[in-house]
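Sequence dictates fold. Next comes a concrete instance:
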Amino acid sequence: MRLAAFVPESDGGKVKLIFRPLVGFTLVCLSIFALLVGLGLWQLERLNWKLRLIEQMNRNLAAAPISLNAALALGDQHAQYRRVMLKGRFEHSKENYLYTTGPEGGAAYHLLTPLLTDDGRAMLIDRGYLPATMRDPAFRPGSEPQGEVAVIGVWRTPDRPGPFTPAPDFAHRIWFARDVAGIARADDLRLAAPAILEATMPRNARGWPRGGQTRVDLPNDHLQYALTWFLLAGALAVAYVAYHYAHGGLSFGNGRR
């Protein structure tokens, strides 16, 4: 296969450019080039999706609190990161402890306590973190409010435990993932939704547990990834031309290669 093009020189002459592509090599390079460009475009789509998601999260966090029924009507997807206000009584005898790390990197727990509403439903409340030394309620007096309380929490639907997530320590009620369904089964809870409300930090709160741990900090490296794929595609195109030039597949009619 031969493709020829004529390019005028500055002296009025013409240079005949001869291109003889290697069919097999060309097909392989075209396939890889299309794959690299496709990956770059896919990362741009992911970038737009991530930006919309972050915008939605920030908008939901800034919105006024809604009721539990309103959150249930929205559904898990649209209720994500909405602040929900509800009243009920904490069932402190069914506290669970989610293993995590504290702000300074030490071992800590998130305190997960069911809140029972007057109509018999329950919502699992992540009341905040506490140091490992304060897992026992005896070491944090006043941390278990009695009677009816009003709670404002951020609606979150946790991911399911992964295949490498350690099994829970049922004897000490310690979990290594926010396994809402598993906690509900273990404590015989009738949850209103398979979600957790992350309690906001009350004003002037100094005791334990400490709420207000919700963060909007999603990694967003999709533009960097897209540029990487496009640069690789460009490098492949340069290598393709250089290979043909070096092996005689690209030459000039005046004897120059």
About this structure: The longest strand covers residues 107-116. Residues 23-62 form the longest helix (40 residues). Residues 3-48+220-252 form one domain. The chain is about 35% helix and 25% strand.
